[in-house]
Specification:
Layout (H helix, E strand, L loop, with lengths): L9 H23 L10 H7 L4 H24 L11 H28 L1 H6 L20 H19 L3 H18 L9 H5 L4 H8 L15 H6 L5 E5 L5 E5 L5
Antiparallel strand pairs: 1-2
Helix pairs in contact: 1-3, 1-7, 3-6, 4-6, 4-7
Amino acid sequence: MVFWEEYVSDELMGIVAPITVYWLYSGFYMLMRPINRYRLHTDQEEKEKNIVDFPTVLKGMLFQQFLQILVAQLMYLVRPVGPIHQPPIFIQILQIIIAMLILDTWQYFVHRYLHVNTYLYRTLHSYHHKLVAPYAIGALYNHPLEGFIVVTLGGAVAFLVSGMTARTSIYFFCLTMAKTVDDHCGIWLPWNLFHLLSENNCAFHDIHHSLRGLKCNFSGPFFPFWDKIMGTYVPYQLVRREDGSLESKPLKKLD
């Protein structure tokens, strides 16, 4: 039994919980911004490099999540609604791992193609790269069509193929949302488990958002294995700058 069982359905919780995680977790990172020694980009860098303002990012995020709600409702319609038997915990963990691998595969190849195809990059993906110095709330700032294809549809495919229940999907989508925020947060916390357990983290992804890093580090949100297999992996090194903040520097020459 879970705490929400008497109040809302698993399907409704699967829609509300990930969005709640997004705003709470990104809000936490936004509160951490005054602590300069953990930041990968200063306020001045964000003003100079980013070509979209915060209100525009905020409006884009709200519309993106509106679309996510609509697709999530359709997604749950193709599965039985109501109380169903939850599989053993090890099966749920296996289903989540399978879904993670599916989502990573989907996002790597679609994301990379959006860079390779200059028309699609200019028309769609360039929206996301207007944040050269990314921050947490802008993690899913995309063109609406890209957001639907890469994020929303990719998540739906991972859910359906993995065979997880609506209840298990709550944990998967909350984890996915938190990891996506973390990858774009621009803040390196030494005790952050995401940073310690995965090479695909905010410093890794920061290389991709740099103006010279558009041909590498496409992976997201969980593991960088496709970058390593496909030869687009560029490791990073964190360097302390004179002002006390951090900088993620590539350990390979970027084209």
